[in-house]
Amino acid sequence: MHFAIFDSYNKNTEMNIKDKSLITSFQSLINTSDKIVIVPHNNPDGDAMGASLGLFNTLLNMNKQSTVISPNAYPEYLKWMPGVDQVIVYEEDSVKALEVLDAADCFIFVDFNALSRIDQMTEYFQNDTKPRFMIDHHPYPEEATASYQISVPEASSTCELLYQVIKEAAFEEFVTVDAAECIYSGIMTDTGSLNYNSNRPETYLTVANLLEKGINKDKIHHQIFQNNSFSKMQLLGFALSEKMELLPELKAAFISLSKEELERFNYQSGDTEGFVNQALWIEGVDVSALITEKDDMVKMSFRSRGDFPVNKFSSAYFEGGGHHNAAGGKSELSLADTIEKFKSALKEYRTVEK
Ligand code: 5GP
Ligand code: MN
Using CA positions, which residue lies closest to atom 7 of ligand 1? Predict the structure, then answer.
């Protein structure tokens, strides 16, 4: 197993790589593979899809055949991304996905570090022995995920990290405007438009590199954040005015949405993106949650400001994980019982914390 943490980048944006051999491995894996499969995590977000398609478009320009296979559907707000129409969704077309997986020479995993994060595709990789490369910025990578791991929790996003890896591997000249727009999207969505997780100068140097590639930053912002359906805006209004609860003694606020409520507002995948952040915008609140009822489980989304580790909280109570200030998880209980569990878990955790 080859494993490296890239401490931080030097001022000249070169990464301070403890194990330079990982970049050499990445170069040779790309150079010697004809069929490359890129895999983002389940419920892919802007960073996961941005890194997948950023790499896809770069490889395309290198005349390398690559395919992005997403475990399940990607959200509506990412459907403008160049190359998205060629993404195979495993959940919707597993026959074709398996054909492509079987024919692949190698795999590149982006924006996750545990096989459990790819849900229905987990089993395939538990039994596969082809070379796997992971590029990710979540803490606590699991060893079984990939034999080659580039894991940098300090990076704002996997997209920022990917760009540095591409640069270090001397593939930067192959990054097209299309690739750069995908890569910028991940930096933008994982930092809330450079609002959080973005205090390192290196992030801005990467953005500067992408601007030099010719991206239209304002257009991307518009496509992702300002291109909502009318019903999504109404759902947001409903969620904030009717479904947000404040727990002042726990310095928390949360929004819960039932399946029926989502359907009433013609819910499309991705429509609740960002809601959980808004619950954190209340004075005195440093933890927020979005609790949504899905077909087979209740999805939990957590955000925090400062010291509260939502990844540890989610892992302790909701089978989840993620980053210190942004994490997710799930519950097998009913929506009502999940809400009660969330409240009592938070109370317990706050008490332990003190
Ligand atoms: P979101 O709330 O946007 O779904 O997820 C926030 C962060 O937590 C993302 O970085 C995401 O990858 C991670 N995350 C979301 N759900 C899970 C989960 O069930 N398990 C783990 N380990 N991480 C998750
Ligand atoms: Mn990410």
Answer: 327
